[in-house]
Write a structure and sequence with these properties.
The protein is 1% helix and 37% strand. With 424 residues, it is an all-beta fold. The strands form 3 sheets. Strands 1, 2, 5, 8, 11, 14, 17, 20, 23, 26, 27, 30, 33 and 35 form a 14-stranded parallel β-sheet that branches. It has a 12-stranded parallel β-sheet with strand order 3-6-9-12-15-18-21-24-28-31-34-36, with no helix packed on it.
Length: 424
């Protein structure tokens, strides 16, 4: 295989725990001491002993949900790890209002756990309501977790992130959270400087990934979305005034989301794969979109200027190097444009559009500026949504500043291929 490109580095990279605190199904919170031979029974008890550099090791088995952890503070060179044990099956947190809730934490790594059956969110990480404090919750890694079958027919999320700054969600799976057209795989409200890489989303109701409430500078890269709901990627959204981070301004324009970057994702199905909803300066690049069910893209505005708060419209989006393989008969319109938006400011560049049921009708109706579209030529997708050297997508893209790696972490060539996967 080609060399990997731009590997993911976090604050935990290269670090090891200084001490271990053990949790097991046969442990005891009263008589245990957290050692491997005399473990605690609950995560909450184990975390009480954690200091910077500690690892809370949760051994395989089933544990109750409802774990609330507050003010867990690691250090930049000594994080606190909370998760499963290498070589064992993931521990499973079952039931409760939420499987796990972390509030006002920093330099924490949550890893190798499974969460299911909670009534509301699977895992909730927030700033404890200290909306104006950028240091309330920061530097968090969530990796190798599996959150599924959470909530019911409402707005319940697999992973809820609110007011976090500097975070990573890596190599995790999210399935069937919420319902009735509500609920997210990862719901981000007022979060900043985030990276979502290598995750899989299946059978979602409203969306797989949402970033709203003043969220900014988030990269959603190399993920797979399968039947991921009404809007697989909801860049922006609708947020109550009181929940924006930082709080809304009466002297400067506000936004639901800014600089959200959806790059090198594979999106299969969903009513609309990508929606720009009050999203400013946002990017959709190198995504492979297969069989959208109603629209390819949406440009919407759900939060408008009101009560002395000016809101910027969805504007200045860039859609470049995406491969769209679709059924013409399934689509209502190519791009759904709502009121109070600025679609004329969008740029569509070097995207490939192929209607497999009607190749001669592959040309989409796009707003704004359209340059270099590749239309009506079969990209010859492989079973895993890749392309070969003879594909018209091969080497047909534009270089995008800051985009180096494809869906699998392979370096894009110069010029790059269109879509999520570079040719080998």
């Amino acid at each position: 295989l080609p060399d990997e490109c731009g590997s993911i580095v976090t604050f935990e990279t290269g670090l090891d725990a200084g001490d271990e605190i053990h949790v097991a199904t046969d442990g005891d919170d009263s008589s245990g001491d957290g050692s491997a031979s005399n473990p605690y029974a609950s995560v909450a008890r184990a975390v009480q002993d954690a200091v910077p550099g500690s690892a809370v090791r949760i051994h395989a088995g089933s544990y109750g949900g409802g774990n609330f952890l507050q003010a867990v503070r690691g250090g930049a060179d000594a994080p606190i790890w909370i998760g499963g044990v290498a070589g064992e099956s993931r521990p499973v947190l079952v039931g409760g209002g939420e499987g796990m809730h972390l509030s006002e934490v920093s330099y924490v790594v949550l890893h190798d756990i499974e969460v299911s059956g909670s009534d509301f969110n699977g895992v909730n990480i927030d700033d404890g309501g200290d909306f104006a404090n950028a240091e309330a919750t920061h530097h968090v890694v969530v990796r190798d977790v599996f959150i599924h079958d959470v909530g019911g027919d409402g707005n319940q999320d697999c992973l809820k992130l609110s007011g976090i700054n500097h975070y990573w969600v890596l190599d995790s799976s999210f399935e069937r959270c919420g319902g009735g057209g509500s609920g997210s795989g990862i719901d981000q409200v007022g979060t900043h400087v985030g990276v979502l890489v290598g995750n899989t989303f299946r059978e979602m109701s409203a969306n797989a990934v949402q970033a709203k409430g003043g969220s900014e500078n988030i990269e959603i890269h190399g993920n797979r979305f399968v039947d991921a709901g009404l809007r697989a990627l909801n860049m922006g959204g609708s947020t109550g005034d009181a929940y924006f981070r930082p709080p809304l301004s009466t002297t400067a324009p506000n936004f639901e989301a800014r600089d959200i970057r959806a790059v090198a994702n594979i999106i299969e199905g969903s009513t609309a794969p990508i929606a720009f909803v009050g999203c400013v300066d946002c990017l959709a690049a190198h995504n492979t979109i297969v069989d959208p069910q109603r629209w390819i893209f949406r440009i919407l505005q759900e939060t408008t200027t009101h009560d002395g708060f000016e809101f910027l419209p969805a504007r200045d989006g860039r859609v470049v190097n995406n491969l769209v393989y679709f059924e013409r008969a399934a689509l209502s319109t190519d791009v759904n444009i709502g009121p109070n938006t600025a679609p004329e400011t969008f740029r569509f560049e070097n995207n490939l559009f192929y209607a497999w049921d009607a190749p001669s009708q592959s040309a989409p109706a796009l707003p704004g500026t359209e340059l270099g579209s590749i239309v009506g030529v079969d990209p010859a997708l492989t079973a895993d949504s890749g392309i070969g050297a003879s594909s018209p997508a091969s080497g047909a893209g534009l270089l995008v500043v800051g985009v180096e790696r494809d869906y699998q972490g392979v370096c894009y060539q110069d010029p790059p291929s269109v879509g999520a996967r570079e040719i080998f």
